[in-house]
Write a structure and sequence with these properties.
The protein is of the alpha+beta class. It folds into four domains: 224 residues, no CATH class; 190 residues, no CATH class; 216 residues, no CATH class; 129 residues, no CATH class. Helix content is 55%, strand content 17%. It has 27 helices and 21 strands. The chain has a six-stranded mixed beta barrel. Strands 12-14-19-16-18-17 form a six-stranded mixed β-barrel. The two termini are 36 Å apart.
Length: 835
């Protein structure tokens, strides 16, 4: 009989006993795989939805967008000549009002062809001509949030930008909501004809005009894009098509999903500790069996094969259970998941995320199980029969090579599946570092426990607890490593969330304005300033000319070829002009007040450094379809964190003052005065849009909160896995605790003293894990808030205290569950039993 056949026979007979003793192994594997599978299925559903509904989400097969202008007659004719159908949509921000109530809204003005693809969902349903209105007033559809805030019902009158409208229906869903970019307020939809000729679309007003195009069947979108780019070169046109309807949403989904998968991998790493401990305990119990097999002539390869086959069968069971649980959880929550998304998705089984989760689970199980298995199978029979032979030792070199190779495969798979090389490498380094530090801390705790236990004379509870922690077979290592890693993930999330929210709360009252006001026409600026300076609650008003431009070239070369995908080069940015600098110059010189030569520009110093710019370089900026090439004359220290007026690009006045434009203003006032100021501005300057900074910050905080909650859910699986490991460690040590309790009772200890010793030992181990987690959490919080976000980080003590308390409670709960049996056992019965 071959060695493999012998190993299979041994494995088959061993498996007849069932999975008892492997519950922790299976639970750790199932939980980790289920979490990764669930995240992957949701991510795949969103990806499929974006791909399948690209045209509907975009509003057409393609979209041609112009900033702050409409297409000329010739441009419109060219677009219509290549398309089967065209719909014109104008997007802007405005103020909606009813009585004394005012609210910011993201306004969409549409023509009769809208929507080209899909349909609006309205309450109540209305006919296609509803936006024509009733009673001589144009109609409008409002987001339910906006309608409720203004107290409006269908048939009620209200104003948009100073124009009277009648609410025809509540807007429940629009098919192209995801393709229209970031919204600064609840949506409202009106007829484009109602806005033509008004101040909202006056020259210099801030709006975007989009032409959604439906092409004939079989049209080559790549060829159409090339033709459009060639036709509108230098005209400020931006193209998007249904192949990638919403790159921003796709990018956000992929990054968040990949991040959550990495968090799930941290949970699997915690489970790996439990897997390793379970396998080590199993092999400990099977030491006599292994010794007998070795004595009968079985080779190390046969013994390894027998155990590997058993572990492979158990791993397959765990993977199947994890994939089933993850898929079942997503299917059960498919309704709420679909309702929470702004577009239709179909939650269905997908092979890729399930295979990804299973691969991760299999690799983690193999890595953590091979270590104890390789140690045991290499030992001689005589040593295995002796207790001293079971002491820990490093596996042979070939086993370490295999474990290292499996780790490399795991890392490569994570990089490939996530597509985020930097984040994946950082996450792996953090988890590996955390495991090593926690293992060292566990060793240090055991060493300290042995030293402190000897000095705790006269304190039997303390001495007993410390002696048990420092014992050779103490569960302190497994407890501190597994719980510490789970708590570290939670601590990191808590410190980052608290740090960002704290930075916002600290900076907003001291430096931020109450409002940004946009679309102030040049002939309104003087009256606007006079009205605000006359209000006693307004402490400061700052204004600046406001245009938008796209940096297209740097020194005659395409900007992105020179400087990469920097945020300044993504889309259009605010542009202004000034006679005198608003910020301090860091390099170069400012132009004279009467300068009228070739265009000059001053660039924000930090962003210029990131783009690799220097004095004398030339920037080509497209503004309102016209390319302006300017020489860099200076760099300025612009602090965008103040949330005041700040521009990356400031031109000399002669370069831009003749172009149609509006003004931007920042208004500083206490929170109690904001409502009154907004009402006054809406009544006297209805075309001016006031954007509340505190409300905008609130929406950012809500978004941060949503991301934090999603991360906490994934991290929660890590913590649950850690608790399962704790339960396993407590269960495996139940016999040892029973013997310990029996000895202490024999020596005169009371049940209360013994329970106190058990509780103290558990509390000390939990506190050690919590303290290490606080260190990792604080480090992660500082790195994200300070280094990545550029904000001041302050340690959040409340989150830290909660982490330590959670660690103590978790270990106490896991140990006290099994303390009752140990305390209730009779000493004589326990002491007479063989070990």
């Amino acid at each position: 009989m071959s060695g493999l056949a012998v190993a299979a026979t041994i494995a088959r007979r061993e498996l007849r006993g069932g999975v008892r003793g492997f519950r922790v192994f299976l639970a750790c594997l199932v939980l980790g795989v289920a979490a990764i599978a669930a995240v992957g299925l949701v991510r795949e559903a969103i990806r499929s939805g974006l791909a399948d509904q690209g045209a509907e989400l975009l509003g057409g097969d393609a979209r041609l967008e112009f900033t702050y202008r409409a297409a000329s007659a010739e441009e419109r004719a060219w677009i219509e000549g290549r398309a089967g159908a065209v719909s014109e949509v104008v997007s802007l921000r405005s103020m909606a009002g009813s009585g004394d109530d005012r609210a910011l809204t993201q306004l969409k003005a549409v023509d009769d062809a809208y929507p080209l693809i899909g349909a609006l969902e309205l309450d109540p349903p209305v006919g296609p001509g509803a936006l024509a209105g009733v009673g001589g007033l144009p109609g409008a559809f409002l987001d339910p949030l906006l309608a409720d805030r203004l107290g409006l019902a269908p048939g009620d009158r209200f104003t948009l930008g100073g124009i009277d409208f009648v609410l025809m229906a509540r807007l429940l869903r629009e098919p192209d909501s995801l393709g229209t970019g970031m919204a600064f307020g609840p949506r409202s939809i009106v007829s484009l004809d109602a806005l033509r000729g008004t101040a909202l679309l006056a020259p210099g007003a801030l709006y975007e005009t989009e032409y959604r195009v439906a092409f004939p069947q079989g049209t080559d979108l790549a060829a159409e894009k090339a033709a459009a780019v060639a036709r509108f070169e230098g005209a400020g046109m931006r193209w998007a098509d249904s192949r990638r309807a919403s790159p921003a949403a796709e990018r956000f989904t992929d990054r968040l999903g990949s991040f959550l998968v990495l968090v799930g991998l941290a949970g699997l790493a915690v489970g790996g500790v439990g897997i390793s401990a379970t396998v080590a305990g199993w092999l400990e119990r099977k030491a006599a069996t292994v010794a007998t097999l070795r004595a009968l002539g079985a080779s190390g390869a046969v013994i390894r094969g027998a155990f590997l086959i058993q572990l492979a069968v158990l791993t397959a069971l765990g993977l199947a259970g994890g994939v089933t649980l993850g898929a079942g959880a997503v299917w059960a929550a498919s309704g709420p998941i679909a309702a929470a998304l702004p577009f239709k998705v179909e939650i269905a089984l997908s092979a890729r995320p399930l295979a990804e989760a299973a691969l991760y689970g299999a690799l983690i199980a193999a890595i953590f199980a091979l270590w104890p298995l390789a140690r045991m199978s290499e030992m001689r029979a005589a040593l295995l029969y002796r207790a001293s032979g079971r002491a820990r030792r490093v596996p042979p070199l070939r086993a370490l090579v295999v474990i290292g190779a499996l780790g490399a495969v795991l890392l490569a798979a994570a990089v490939m599946f996530s597509g985020l090389k930097g984040l994946t490498l950082a996450a792996f380094a953090a988890v590996t570092g955390a495991l090593l530090v926690l293992a060292l801390v566990a060793r240090g705790v055991r060493w300290l426990a042995r030293r402190a236990g000897a000095a705790a004379r006269g304190r039997p509870i303390w001495r007993t607890a410390l002696a048990a922690m420092g014992a050779p077979r103490s569960e302190a290592g497994a407890v501190i490593v597994s719980l510490g890693l789970g708590l570290s993930v939670l601590a990191a999330v808590g410190q980052v969330d608290a740090g960002l929210r704290g930075a916002i709360a600290r900076d907003l009252p001291k430096t931020a304005p109450a409002f940004f006001a946009i679309d102030i026409q040049p002939d309104q600026l003087a009256a606007f300033r006079d009205r605000l300076t006359g209000m006693p609650d307004v402490t400061k008003v700052e204004t600046a000319p406001m245009l938008r431009g796209v940096i297209t070239e740097i020194n005659g070369r395409p900007a992105r070829e020179v400087a990469g995908d920097h945020w300044v080069l993504r889309g259009d940015r605010g542009v202004t002009y000034a006679e005198a600098p608003r910020e301090a110059l860091t390099e170069g010189a400012w132009w004279a007040p009467d300068y009228a030569g070739p265009p000059l520009v001053s660039v924000a110093a930090k962003e210029a450094g990131e783009l690799g710019l220097k004095l004398g370089d030339r920037l080509t900026v497209n503004i309102l379809g016209r390319d302006i090439e300017a020489e860099i004359a200076s760099f300025r220290a612009v602090d965008f964190a103040t949330m005041g007026i700040g521009f990356v690009l400031t031109f000399n006045p002669a370069a831009l003052s003749a172009a149609p434009h509006s003004a931007l203003a920042t208004i500083y006032a206490p929170p109690a005065a904001e409502a009154g100021i907004m009402r006054a501005l809406a009544q006297e300057f209805p075309n001016v849009t006031a954007i509340g900074v505190r409300e905008t910050i609130g929406r950012v905080s809500e978004a941060l909160g949503a991301i934090a909650r999603a991360t906490l859910m994934a991290a929660g699986v890590t913590l649950v896995t850690g608790f399962v490991v704790l339960i396993g460690a407590a269960a495996s040590g139940e016999a040892a605790r029973a013997r310990e309790a029996a000895l202490l009772k024999t020596l005169g200890a009371t049940r209360g003293m013994i329970l106190g010793a058990f509780a103290l030992r558990a509390a000390l181990m939990g506190a050690a894990a919590g303290v290490v987690a606080i260190g990792f959490g604080g480090l992660a919080g500082w790195a994200v808030v300070d280094l990545v976000m550029g904000a001041e980080f302050r340690f959040a003590p409340a989150s830290a205290i909660a982490i330590v308390a959670g660690g103590v409670v978790a270990v106490l709960a896991a140990n006290l569950i099994f303390a009752r049996g140990a305390l209730g056992a009779r000493p004589a019965q326990v002491l007479r039993a063989p070990e």
